[in-house]
Amino acid sequence: MTHAHLTPKVSTVEAIKYLRALVGESFVLTGALDLKTWGTDWTKVYEPKPLCIVLPQNTAEVSKIMAYCHENELAVTPSGGRTGLCAGAVASEGEVVMSLSRMCKILDVDSTGLTITTEAGVTTQALQEAAKYIGLFFPLDLASKGSCHIGGNIATNAGGVKLIKYGGTREQVLGLEVVLANGDILDMNVGLRKNNSGYDLKHLFIGSEGTLGIVTKAVLRLMPKPRNLQLAIMAVDVFEKIPKILTECSLAAVSVTAFEFFTQVAHKIVLARLPGARTPFAASSPFYVLLEIEQPGSEPEMETLLEKLFDQGLISDATIAANSTQFKEFWGLRENITESLAAHGQVRKNDISLAIDQLDPFVKELEKLLTKMSSSATNGPASDAMELVLFGHIGDGNLHINYVSPKERNPKEFQVAARTIEEQIFKLLTKFKGSISAEHGIGLTKKKDLHFTRTAQEVSWMRQTKRLWDPKGILNPGKIFDV
Ligand code: FAD
Ligand code: 2HG
Ligand code: ZN
User: Based on the structure, what is the number of domains in the chain?
Assistant: First the structure.
């Protein structure tokens, strides 16, 4: 089995034999459990069917594997930590899965130039720890940091919880080394802060979801450590107050390092599913905002800000984390939403973004739409119930909408029911000029919806770009769009 546009020139047996000779017997996996495990990501919707899993140990091996696959028309799916949420790393049509897991060395940390040079298979957390070790800070931060690779972060242009202050992955990348479809090694690895000498090609690969090249190395920005972080959870009674709170933060000139939100439903599910989780509030509230600020001076900026927000009626309750244990607990209430939802039921995910001033009008229309849809739906059994759970990086205009039904529900029916609502939401989103993907990417799950966000002209240029860099279409075929 392979993609329709490819005609493999070698048998599976020959390909595996060649790859084993290249990287070593034990670094080409073909066992049923390995194929299942490595052929999928967090989405778990598509049936994994890779040809094999190959684990190169350096760029030269990646290059030889690509040259062989190019020559023999074998599809290749690059694979990182497999935490992706849109089936970008799924291999369901006989692809060679190229995992960068063995390429996990941090090569250099420069505390003068404030850079870190790394192989692509290093986890985000390992980079954070390496920076911390020398008294610096790597700002990319997401709940999957213990598993996801920097190569995967770059390929998805991951966002995370600190984007509001430091930017996303794209903003951290100073240099890249990429192996192209034909095996050529493209070194854009100089890592200069400033370099206006022609097109900055590295940006093409950031967010390209493994369709243009295999990221093998990166030079990334480091930052001075943030000083004296303060964290508060605020209870908010109506959504429209959340953007207003953000405005007040800006007017008060506080340095916001995270501005996250979740609904009462999300909060309840975390409290029910996360061992030891506690709510800091006596009464529940429809919405919660997690606000982290840097408070370097002696002024109690967080207290002053919260007082102001109370006086203006923008928040109904708030608690400031009193110590590092509470700091972790509060963050846990936000960062464990995804895991808690997965334990709670079947989940389908949206990851939309809007301009901040469009958030409130959009949410108002969304509420109307959902009321209309639920009143027109017939009442089925309890197992068919569908909850919409909202949370996300609201300070960036990024709203995660998770559709959740009990595990007992027929999975196909669940997907159909969730899709019906999703389509209406995407139509609404178009009206507000939003995007169907803020940070997770398109992969397989959202490719049919690309047109909601991108014009036909844009997609046509994307296709031409893909054909230029990968004329045979062997790199992660079928992801983002069909060529
Ligand atoms: P994978 O899932 O392995 O792959 C993702 C894509 O990148 C695929 O298309 C793959 O082919 C490609 N790829 C992987 N490695 C390479 C490489 N070396 N070269 C070229 N292409 C490659 N995402 C966010 O943006 N923000 C969040 O806050 C966030 N939180 C999350 C929380 C949880 C609990 C989970 C499970 C996921 C979360 N994610 C988040 C999604 C996910 O962690 C990110 O998309 C992450 O960047 C994926 O990295 P990965 O190494 O797991 O990549
Ligand atoms: C987050 O912000 C991640 O926690 C995951 O991007 C979002 O599960 C989701 O929908
Ligand atoms: Zn997110």
Answer: 4
